[in-house]
Amino acid sequence: MSNGKILELQQIKREFVMGTEIVRALKGVSFDVSAGEFVTIMGSSGSGKTTLLNILGCLDKPTSGNYLLDGINVSSLSRNDLARLRNHKIGFVFQAYNLLPRTSALENVELPLFYNPELSTRERRDRALGALEAVKLADREGHTPSQLSGGQQQRVAIARALVNQPVMILADEATGNLDTRTSYEIMALMQELNQQEGKTIVFVTHEPDIAAFSSRTVMLRDGKVVKDSRNENVRSAKEALAALPPAEDY
Amino acid sequence: MSAINLILIALRALERNKLRAFLTMLGIIIGVAAVIAMVAIGEGSKQSIQSQLGNMGSNMITIMPASNVTGGVRVSGSSFQSLTIADVLAIQKNATYVSGVSPVSSTKGQAIYGALNWNTSLQGVAPSYLDIRKLTVNDGISFSDADVATAAKVCLLGQTVINNLFPSGESPVGKVIRLNSIPLQVIGTLAPKGQSSFGQDQDDIILTPYTTVQKRILATIYFQSIYASAVSEGVSDKATDEITEILRTTHRLRPSDENNFQVRTMEELIKTLSSTSSLLTILLTAIAGISLVIGGIGIMNIMYVSVTERTREIGLRMSIGARGIDILLQFLVEAVIISVTGGLIGVVLGITSAKVITLTLGWPTMVSESSIILSFVVCAFTGVFFGYYPAQAASRLDPIEALRYE
After folding, report:
1. Which residue from A17, A38, B31, B383 could staple onto B292, CB 3.0 to 4.6 Å apart?
2. B217 and B284 fall within a common domain
3. Do B114 and B34 have their domain in common?
4. Is the ipTM beyond the 0.90 threshold?
5. Which residue of B has its CA nearest to A112?
6. How many CB atoms sit inside 10 A of residue A118's CB?
């Protein structure tokens, strides 16, 4: 599966009925993502970015066209099967972190594993600790979100996305709420996961700055792919971080 | 999802909102505690009535004159006199299920000793009356059949009478008191019995041979009533039938005639009083039950608010793989945990408050198992019933909208 296709999108169309009008959010989107790729999906608001993200995340199904996630055709699945698929194959990272308040980092990371009946309590805990270690927050396992900085919260969210060992991490404007330095830190972590662990990452953003860190950019406009280009010189987030002027209060 | 995971998820969710969970629980706690305490009070009073009556002699049978028609005029029982010594003797002789029988001829009067006086009830009885009414002589002796035969001027005093005529604590035995100008020698005192369940002071009496009252005070051959005791409680009914037969014969009633007397067992009285206090129990339980329902509505209300407030959480859980049923069960289990925990605390609180009521107010209480089981089952059911709708609402959310909910 190392070089297989994780995502296959074939002529994806998505239409919404708004009163009497039909809004065509996606007008036939096709592209593939292979294992180990770091893809950013870019587009301005109204480009169909969010609709595509929902379909990629198996939260929504296309009106027509086929979407294969890890070889499974999503279009034919029931609501419960979709939930199972999300649990096993996708790790979400949201702009607003969406951590449970008043809940420790460890318990937040454990959350997806509760919906996976095959795991024992022991395994669940070990995996969650492992995921926290991967995002370098092993020493903060007992902290609640309010005791963590924005960047740390997002790292907990990334650990939560990693914990079920998904085939793809799906990030939705994951740096949107963070300052430049912290954004770069998160991107450095993403790059590390991509390059060292071989994680497939699909990153939805509207910031070209962030897209520069990925290996490939898919540009959407008006529900269509207008550009799909490989990024020849991937910027290293670590170097970018080092190049920033030192922060006085950090 | 496994049951353990489910409970763990629900517990963690409740833990995040401890105060709110507790306040929701409070409705159930108060409801269950109220049901248990109220039923305990009701049951306790029922039990105490029964034991008091048992103390009075639950195998006791009372025979009283009944209403009858005399020359076309219906005369009430109390003004109609039909019981004589012949009846007593006939019962004594012929009844096999009766262990003791005593006539009662009573009157009110002023008892005087020295400068003190006390208005009390004078009861003319046979010596067997003490056994029938479960009275015991504390000090001195009881009167005998010989005293009855001679209409002796002797008496036994109840504790209340003693307290009022002999306040200094001297022994009244051997002293002579006067009742309506007739001197009576005190030959014994009665052991205190306290108040009856009707609130009547059972110690406010003077006992004397019935002949003394009949001949020396009332000048009558009739009795107000006859007391008898069945051999055992179980044969009260048979004894009643027997007495009825005997009295119909001695009163020379034709088969078509109504009884001109009535025979009552304590059992009937016990039943009447028990049913009254059962009614009280039902009433109290109903009131307490209403508070339990209000507690349930409280759960529903909080769960609805909670679903709205936790929309994003629900969206998140769905995005990381929770199915609709997982969300439904989570909220349902939360509701059930609240109601069952509340129920448990309520049971403890209910039992405790019943004890406190007994200790502070002196009311008899009896915590019944059935009330504990019932209120517990009701509150678990309340949790499921009132938790289901909000839980279902949560499970039907669209994850996309839930995630973007502000």
Report:
1. B31
2. no
3. no
4. yes
5. B320
6. 7
